[in-house]
Amino acid sequence: MSAPVVADDGLTLPQPYLLFLGDTTEAGFAKTALGLVDWAGDRCVGELAVDGCTVTTGLPLMSPAEARAAGARSLVIGVANQGGVIGDRWIAPLVEAMEAGLDLISGLHQRLGSVPALADAARRTGRRLIDIRTPPSAIPIATGRKRGGKRLLTVGTDCALGKKYTALALHRAFVARGADADFRATGQTGIMIAGGGIPMDAVVSDFEAGAAEMLSPDAAPGHWDVIEGQGSIYHPAYAAVSLGLLHGSQPDVFVVCHDPGRTMVLGLSGYALPSVEDVIDLTIRLGGRTNPAIRCGGVSFNTGRYAEDEAEALMAAERDRLGLPVADPIRGGAAFDALVANCLA
């Protein structure tokens, strides 16, 4: 699970982590904490929240001092809220964490050092403020040149519905089948899990496709880069990131990620989700600009809110309707095996 580009100048993140959930009430906005528990659980010791938080990772609730005594070396802000801002109610517990001996790690757009109380506490305690969402320097303009190797990109009908989980699961399955493959992280949580990558939504728009080319360079003919998708090309706010990533990554195969229980865009209730078919069609038309051979390998459903029999029936019906493999990578099984096989075909 290597990545050729690191977003933090090679800094090794201090581990294990105490995961901070703030006052989050929507699981989709706690995807950093939840993703770290699911894919790097051995590096997480507990969670911390403020009053009003209704989301949990299932880890023990700990104070910063308790977490430090349990071996934690840093607090990770596990929230990915709209705008990537640090809440006023978070500052006191973040300062407390530094006073307990923990460094702070954030993947938010707002820099930790821009908050005077945090900057002052860091100077006073000697703790580090580590911002993950920092692109590398000297990103080139995209060339559109076809590169060696094979690429798979996860795309979505919306944000926070499984693109990262799907990419990680597919990468693991590719490797298990003997494929030479790397996971390429494009968001804060993926970078924390993989140890490298490029935070695509922090890249200046003119360099977005170039950053994707930089992230997934020339490779041997049989090598696969499994690239974590961002946003949705139908998203009213984030489509620009999704399109730049699509053009620059030049995927040979893409997998559409969808939450069948979601009808409206997360955080933008006035916008209905596009259909899976619409995303397939538009991805092929736009992605074909830099890779005319682009194809859809299948569909990844997030069925966490469904009972197993309901999920299986739903995916079977969609499989028949779309004529493509449909699977939940977390549930696995024969359906996921079929999705993997069709992507590798």
Description:
The protein is of the alpha/beta class and 345 residues long. It has two domains: 17-131, Rossmann fold, CATH 3.40.50.720; 150-344, P-loop containing nucleotide triphosphate hydrolases (Rossmann fold, 3-Layer(aba) Sandwich), CATH 3.40.50.300. Helix content is 33%, strand content 17%. It is built from eleven helices and 13 strands. It has helices spanning 31-40, 64-69, 91-99, 116-125, 163-176, 188-194, 208-215, 239-249, 276-287, 308-322, 333-344, and strands spanning 17-20, 44-48, 74-77, 103-106, 129-131, 150-156, 181-184, 224-227, 253-258, 264-265, 268-272, 295-301, 326-327. A six-stranded parallel beta sheet has the order 7-8-6-9-12-13, sandwiched between helices. α1 (31-40) runs parallel beside α6, α3 packs parallel to α4 (116-125) and α7 (208-215) packs across α8. The protein is globular. The two termini are 22 Å apart. The relative contact order is 0.13. Residues 2-9 have low confidence and may be disordered.
